[in-house]
């Protein structure tokens, strides 16, 4: 009986020792990973964080796109109202960053002009924008003369804010107004869509194949490979417009517009990145989860929309 018990105890001891060793290994591994767990560097944490970030970014981006496309095809006035609201938010974010940089813009004057620029083409497509520019400059001049504490730098920032964030944005309204019907909406959607695809293609191509930095001191995540991927995406959208026969755009014109609009959209992106880096912020705001501020989402569109309008206008298409 005792021998049987001895055999049982003898055989159980190795099993218990093996289990203890496994437990010790697991505890040791857990201790080794504790620092990574606290800092969020575990593979599972990174995968979950990336997924959550992409879902948040995609959802907010989809809502932004749906509202924008809906207004574009609804008509000229809904487009102007939407662009006016977006320009006001972009200008507000620009002034916020300017104040962080030590400037004191007149937000009442600047934000009023930001609202008026996209609405002006609806009232008078030829002279509306010029009238708003004149009123903006007169208001800035009067403010500068009547307030001796105001510096010329504050005046410059006040005037530049709505010109940068709203006057250029108003070109979307001018493009939409070229044809009040469906084809005008499709053309405006194509211009905006080409910028969206530029951003998307640049992001995914750069993430997958990016090796050479495009502007490391301004935007470290941008790559030359992503830049060319973005240009290709822009050209594709313009070629689709040409294939559909929108506004009589030819294939040669589509390629040229795709290249130039793609380049200026990157310039707009880098310009805003330079502003943010100058004042030490990551995002211009937080109104769009996953994207930051509306200016972060629209920085490429500002330069690209005016470029597209000028190309279409001087190309005899508008």
TrEMBL record:
Top-level enzyme category: transferase
Keyword terms: Cell membrane, Lipid biosynthesis, Lipid metabolism, Membrane, Nucleotidyltransferase, Phospholipid biosynthesis, Phospholipid metabolism, Transferase, Transmembrane, Transmembrane helix
GO annotation, cellular component aspect: plasma membrane
Pfam families in UniProt: CTP_transf_1
Membrane topology: Multi-pass membrane protein
Subcellular location: Cell membrane
Reactions accelerated catalytically: a 1,2-diacyl-sn-glycero-3-phosphate + CTP + H(+) = a CDP-1,2-diacyl-sn-glycerol + diphosphate
Keyword Nucleotide-binding: no
GO biological process, one term: CDP-diacylglycerol biosynthetic process
Assigned EC number: 2.7.7.41
Biased composition (Basic and acidic residues): 13-38
Transmembrane domains' residue ranges: 62-92, 104-123, 129-148, 155-175, 181-205, 226-245, 251-271
GO molecular function: phosphatidate cytidylyltransferase activity
Secretion signal span: none
Segments of this protein annotated with the region Disordered: 1-42
Biased composition (Polar residues): 1-12
Biological pathway: Lipid metabolism; Phospholipid metabolism; CDP-diacylglycerol biosynthesis; CDP-diacylglycerol from sn-glycerol 3-phosphate: step 3/3
PANTHER family the UniProt entry points to: PHOSPHATIDATE CYTIDYLYLTRANSFERASE
Family stated for the protein in its record: Belongs to the CDS family.
Name the record gives this protein: Phosphatidate cytidylyltransferase
